[in-house]
Amino acid sequence: MRTKNSRVAERRILGAFGIICFVFMLLIIRLVYIQIIQADEYTQKQKDLITYSSSITASRGDIYDRNMNILAKDATCARIVVYPANIEYPEDIAGELSEALQMNYDDVYKMVTSDSSEVTIKRRVDYMTALELDKKYNSDTKSKQFLAVFEDKKRYYTDPEFAQYILGFTNVDHEGAYGVEAEYNSVLKGIDGVETVIKDANGREIESLTQTKVEAIQGSNLVLTIDSIMQYYVENIVYEAYLENKPKRVIVAVSDPDTGEILAYSVYPGYDLSDPWTVTEDFKKAMLSKTDNDLSDNQLEMWKNPLTSYIYEPGSTFKIITTTAALEENISSTSRYYNCAGYLTVGGVRIKCDVYPGRHGSQNLADAVSNSCNPAMMKIAMEMGPDIFYKYIYNYGFAMPTGIDLDGEESGILSVNQDVNLVDFVTLAFGQGLGVTPIQMLQALNTAVNGGELLVPRVAKYVVDSETNEVTTEFGREVIRRVISESTSATIRDIMHYTAGNNNTIGRYYKGMKIGGKTGTAQKFENGAYLSGKYVASFYGMIPYDDPELSVMVIVDEPSGTFTMGGSVAAPLGAKILKSCYEYLCSLDINETTSDSAEMSAKVLIPDLRGKELADAKELLDALGIKFEIQGSENGVITSQSPMLVEYTEGTEIKLVVSEDSNAPVEMPDLKGMSVSQASRLLDSIGLVCNVNGGGIVKSQSVKAGTPVERGSVIDVYFEYLE
User: Fold this and answer.
1) How many CB atoms lie within 10 A of CB 309?
2) Would the pTM of this model clear 0.85, i.e. be above it?
3) First to last CA, the chain
4) CA 156 to chain centre
5) How far apart (Å, rounded) are the C-alpha atoms in residues 628 and 201?
6) How would residue 134 be classed by pLDDT, with cut points 50, 70 and 90?
7) Rounded to the nearest 10 degrees, what angle do helices 105-112 and 90-100 cross at?
8) Is residue 664 packed enough to be buried (19+ CB in 10 Å), middle (13-18) or exposed (0-12)?
9) Which stretch of DSSP H or E encloses residue 553?
10) Phi-psi region of 275 (alpha: psi -120 to 50; beta: other; left: phi over 0)
11) DSSP code of 512?
12) Residue range 218-248, pLDDT digits in tens
């Protein structure tokens, strides 16, 4: 018989047992939840404790010119990562890292004290520097690892000042930012890989355990239409023109009018591809107003591609468009005469010719173009009428993008009201009242002389597989539409040859050359008004005029000094470029590479490194695989080099003479064979002043090479053009 106390005890035992069962049930449910429902989450947390995965940046494809000279390539460098939670003395570490990596202390301190589990301190670090840091901080295997070194990639350009607005550059994430680097980013960038390692309790890699690595896949290579030799010619001549005319900017593009390919393109001032974030001094002086103090705005302004984004009134070069439209519509002919009284009154407004108060009198069509007669062009436009004239303006591609494979293309400006203002309409005939880009003007005038076909301009020629070296994509000649007939095109070529021959400078210096061309001078229009004394001087030319193989578009923005007109500023510059490039073209044994060729052998041209810092030069030469020997100081600027600008062959070792950057006298370098831009920059880099005499290539210098010279000394350098 159970007593009352025994029944109470039984209830307590049952209650306790029930509680224990309930607790066990909760534990079982929790275990099921953790092991089944949250299994993936906890597995990942476990992996995170013992493993670390790092992205392997894929090498971007190489960029070549049309002759397979390498212009841009990747090289392996390092990425420095820290784990802030493992850092015991952040002040000391921040100081050491900021000094080793040449970074701001406060920026590094913020990173090493961050709440993040890991922070990238710096990318694109020289591998030797990275290995020294790794050895310094990771030699003690007992302490927690707070710094790691991972593979990274850095972009190198064989000449950082070469074709900047064609090549463009990459951003901090190794993605294309401007130029073909951006336009063909998906082709060049490749596929990143990943590496996973096992770590111990201190966060250190356990090398004996399993590692997994998915290799990165390099991007495809890109072959451009640019010819490096023509590009060098153009860049040197453009720089000389900048020094001589002191304009805001000089823009020059050379093309093949029959294919639309851009063969050379130069702008000065521009920027440095090795340091595109720094606004150059020449750009600041020429292109930025005193109120432009925001760095990011100034950078964006500097990175804009003038070929595709600079909008200007074309002036008299547009008269070729007017003339071809009239010829095609049989409204005019070479036997037609036009009288110029020095002005023409239209809609009650007297519109003057450039020779007013003089006059051209009676002149045929060829003379009207050669004389750049405004009244003659206005009469032609009025005979055509708005419907016909606007049709040709649009058919030539104005007021719409050309489709060139470069970034930032503008459409230009062309206002057409329902009720056409007669004055606005007739002034279009001589290139006033519309805005065009340089590439639009080049495309349209190429159409006028190539037989009448409007072509898509291009800077890319092939895409080549980086492993098989086979052409995977070929960018061929692309016709948009036919604008004029071949007979009209032939007539305008003859007129342009006649016009070029009547230019005093072209006739005097380039007599006998089969150049055709047309100049333009337009008063600048800003904020709703024309600016007094500020002009855009331009010239379009081609050679040989009867079957053009080369064309050039020259724009000199706000030339200063005595001469500011297209005929005196831009035409000589264009003729000089056509002469140099055409003579080079004629000297070639042309064997065009086609897409059927499986063998596209890359060539490495030894860059001219004179005037560059030794550290930058060493990085570039290492990336290109070029062996070198240093003579003189281990720090400073390269003042002499041998050989250069020749194809590199295995076993060749180049010699670099380096001058230390100090206050001591500098050894005078040998400037022989250098262009105006090269000589000026080299002397400036070692603290000397170049006094330019003439143009072309260095003929002599006032101080003999090898002579000690005090910094700040003025050196007279004499140049001459090679015939």
Assistant:
1) 17
2) no
3) 133
4) 13
5) 45
6) confident
7) 130
8) exposed
9) strand 550-557
10) beta
11) T
12) 899 999 999 999 998 999 899 989 988 899 9
